[in-house]
Amino acid sequence: MKKIALIAALGLMGMGSAMAQTTQVNGTFQVSVNLTSKCLLETAGTTVDFGTYDAFGSASNAAPFTLVSYKCTRGMTPTVKFDVTSGTTSTAGAGATAEGVLSGLLYSLTAALDTTATAGAEPTAGSGGTLGTLGTDQKRIYKVTGAMATGQAGCITAGAGTCAATSHQRTLILEY
Question: What was the pLDDT predicted at 122?
């Protein structure tokens, strides 16, 4: 009787292993995305302040600057230019130049990528996403530096537009 019970138990074990086998049926499908790449303003600049200018002298702040920061989709190569509302601008490019007039004093602006501002800024792009890790953006930080020539007379005539204006807003435009 013990032999029959042992044979029956072994038979059940064999059936159990046959029942535990798995069969695989594959259903394949495509995964896709339509990325709309873009750049966003991250940090607007502060005032480019020339300080006090003594007529026929010079500005007390010789090279004031501000930083304007954008974050972009990795791999983009946008261009920049200044607005023309309160002055001129160069054609859009990797950097930009502009001129304007305040209190009858001619000034110039230069915008260039600031590669020393922060980690992750150009020329080192952000990192791509990997399994379990999100990717990071590509930071584009532009240093906008002002210059104002010495020896200018200036003007204080009221109502003469840029002659009397002691400040105005300028915009750094990023195009992609």
Answer: 60
Distance (Å, whole) CA 143 – CA 76: 19
The domains of the chain are located at 41-125+133-175
pTM reported for the whole predicted model: 0.78
List the beta bridge partners of residue 133. 130
Please give the average pLDDT of every successive group of 10 residues along the chain, which has 176 residues.
53 56 94 96 96 97 95 91 96 96 96 76 66 85 97 84 86 96
Please report, for residues 9, 49, 64, 172, the alpha-carbon distance to residue 110 in angstroms, rounded to integers and kept in the order given.
88, 14, 11, 10
